[in-house]
Design goal:
By secondary structure, the chain is of the alpha/beta class. The chain has helices at about 15-20, 45-65, 80-90, 120-130, 155-160, 195-200, 210-220, 235-240, 255-265, 275-280, 290, 300-305, and strands at about 35-40, 70, 95-100, 105, 145, 170, 205, 230-235, 245-250, 280-290.
């Protein structure tokens, strides 16, 4: 297939099967990989690794008199414990640290969720699971905490551009390659080219139904009514200004295939994470062994071969 028209690229069954058959021990140094992967037996090792990288990057920028600019998620919090511990113990100044929050939940009328009344509010989650962990003496100033705003959708993109882009973007990856709420596009009536997608702006988004089910299963015992149907997300244009990307994928069998797609797939809107893996200069997947492994790599593909 001619790959110059990448917006039409859909990953085929043969490609997918080929990637899923690669043994876990061959992933990190595989010659065809598009990005790097760090695999550890225990998730806690990955949380510490990311937290330490955050603290090291901030300390280095402070020493050089530079601002630090991160896009951070509210879905993974454990690494923030290690970061906050380093900040508090080593007295690392956060006054020049700018946090750009990658997304937030909205209700069915595209209004922000009330953190006091909802199970799901990114602002509430980050306040208790990130900002509150840092002692007041070293805290991140309120004016340096930037959220996507339905009242001014261009504000966060404009600020990132004015500040010269992002140093590091963190995040997770959905089963179909979702990053932030930049989900795979699904419509039989319109298409967005890869170029258009890469220049996508901060915008409201309708959450795909399989994403609602996945969040409900993972966080709320399958109660999908607890998950808001809408969100607001930073677009790819701002994310792709990042010099580095570090994405944590530790959800076991549910994410084994998307790890392989991120590692080996060309950029395609079918799996948005491939855009980051192919475009961000230093892109790292952090996976526990169970998630990096694949059942098909152990010979369990008899049913698949029937196709």
């Amino acid at each position: 297939m001619e790959r110059s028209n990448m917006q039409e690229y859909v990953i085929g069954k043969k490609e997918l099967l080929k990637w899923c058959r690669i043994p876990v021990e061959r992933l990190a140094d595989h010659p065809e990989r598009k990005c790097d992967i760090l695999i550890r037996e225990k998730k806690e090792e990955l949380y510490r690794f990311i937290g330490d990288r955050m603290a090291d990057e901030l300390a280095e920028h402070n020493q050089n008199g530079e601002l630090t600019k991160w896009i951070l998620p509210s879905g993974h919090l454990d690494q923030y414990r290690y970061f906050a511990k380093r900040v508090n113990e080593e007295r690392i100044d956060c006054s020049r640290l700018h946090i750009f929050h990658m997304d937030d939940w909205l209700d069915w009328q595209f209004r922000p969720m009330d953190a006091r009344k909802s199970f799901v509010s990114a602002r509430g989650i980050m306040e208790s699971g990130f900002y509150a962990l840092i002692e007041d003496e070293f805290s991140i100033p309120e004016e340096n905490r930037h959220w996507p705003d339905m009242k001014n959708l261009d504000a966060i993109d404009d600020l990132i551009r004015e500040m010269g882009g992002i140093d590091t973007v963190q995040g997770g990856v959905g089963c179909r390659g979702m990053v932030a709420f930049d989900e795979p596009l699904r419509s039989r009536y319109y298409k967005v080219t890869l170029e258009e997608y890469e220049h996508s702006k901060t915008r409201p988004a309708v959450i795909n139904e399989d994403t609602i089910v996945a969040y409900a299963q993972r966080e709320f015992g399958g109660c999908y009514e607890a998950i808001p149907p809408m969100g607001i997300t930073i677009g790819m244009e701002s994310i792709l200004t990042a010099k580095k990307g570090i994405f944590l994928v530790t959800t076991g069998e549910w994410k084994q295939t998307v790890v392989r797609v991120a590692l080996f797939g060309e950029a395609t809107t079918e799996f948005p994470v491939t855009v980051l893996a192919n475009r961000i200069p230093e892109f790292l997947l952090c996976c526990d062994t169970e998630t990096a492994d694949h059942v098909i790599s152990r010979g369990s593909d008899a049913g698949y071969l029937a196709y």
